[in-house]
From TrEMBL:
Residues 10-140, 159-222 form the Exoribonuclease phosphorolytic domain. It holds the Pfam family RNase_PH. This is Ribonuclease PH. Phosphorolytic 3'-5' exoribonuclease that plays an important role in tRNA 3'-end maturation. Removes nucleotide residues following the 3'-CCA terminus of tRNAs; can also add nucleotides to the ends of RNA molecules by using nucleoside diphosphates as substrates, but this may not be physiologically important. Probably plays a role in initiation of 16S rRNA degradation (leading to ribosome degradation) during starvation. Phosphate binds at R86, G124, T125, R126. Belongs to the RNase PH family.
């Protein structure tokens, strides 16, 4: 039995709450169990200088963790002068995941920055951030269409992410911190609504994992992201005033 009493293929309780930030063009508060991430999408009328004249837009992401998101206070990275390697890796992953399902020319030469701020961390912050960031980006594009800034929806598909791992020899879905900290294998999967793989990150913390174990994790991840995409669709089917979709 897992510490959370969940089945091996069971997600934590997931919620997606839209329109939580008053000034952002798109926003979503996403929770995976006790992990909570605030995602906001901000429109900028100019894209990066290196895309000037290309007719394409750009989506970038920034990720941060509040000092008391964890059991002990962590120092704000701004005080150290630069983001850590982990932070840079995660925000690049979020940006790649969103761009993979976006028609960038349909944005025009504009930029959107998606900020993912971890309010509380209990494992899976990057996967929660990607899942919530897609909702925030969707609502940013809807805001743009409503004002005739763009004529079509640049999003080509959904994208969501989930963690999997091998804990005590058993493949399990959506690790919380108690499992993540002791897993023999830890993996993150970013998968589109149509089932395409955007990114797979897998690490053996103890002994190497086998091809069969990798395929078992992939099966778990596909089932998990299918449920997350269904939850994204449920959230979008409700007016923002209703705000929350819950698994």
């Amino acid at each position: 039995m897992r510490p959370s009493k969940r089945a091996n293929d069971e997600l934590r309780t997931v919620t997606l709450e839209r329109a939580v930030a008053r000034y952002a063009e798109g926003s979503c508060l996403v929770t995976f169990g006790e992990t909570k991430v605030l995602c906001t999408a901000s429109l900028e009328e100019r894209g990066p200088p290196w895309l000037r004249g290309s007719g394409k837009g750009w989506i970038t992401a920034e990720y941060s963790m509040l000092p008391r998101a964890t059991h002990e206070r962590t120092r704000r990275e701004v005080n150290s002068g630069k983001p850590s390697g982990r932070t840079q890796e995660i925000q690049r992953l979020i940006g790649r995941s969103l761009r993979a399902v976006t028609n960038l020319p349909a944005m025009g030469e504009r930029g959107i920055t998606v900020d993912c701020d971890v309010i509380q961390a209990d494992g899976g912050t990057r996967t929660a951030a990607i899942t919530g960031a897609w909702v925030a980006l969707h609502d940013c594009f809807a805001w743009m269409r409503a004002r005739s800034i763009i004529s079509i929806d640049p999003l080509r598909d959904h994208v969501a992410a989930v963690s999997c791992g091998i804990v005590k020899g058993v493949p399990v879905l959506d690790l919380d911190y108690a499992e993540d900290s002791g897993a023999e294998t830890d993996a993150n999967f970013v998968i589109t609504g149509s089932g395409g793989l955007v990114e797979v990150q897998g690490t053996a913390e103890g002994k190497p994992f086998s091809e069969d174990e990798l395929l078992a994790l992939l099966r778990l991840a596909k089932g998990g992201t299918e449920r997350l995409v269904a939850l994204q669709k449920q959230a979008l089917a409700q007016p923002p005033s209703d705000k929350k979709a819950t698994s």
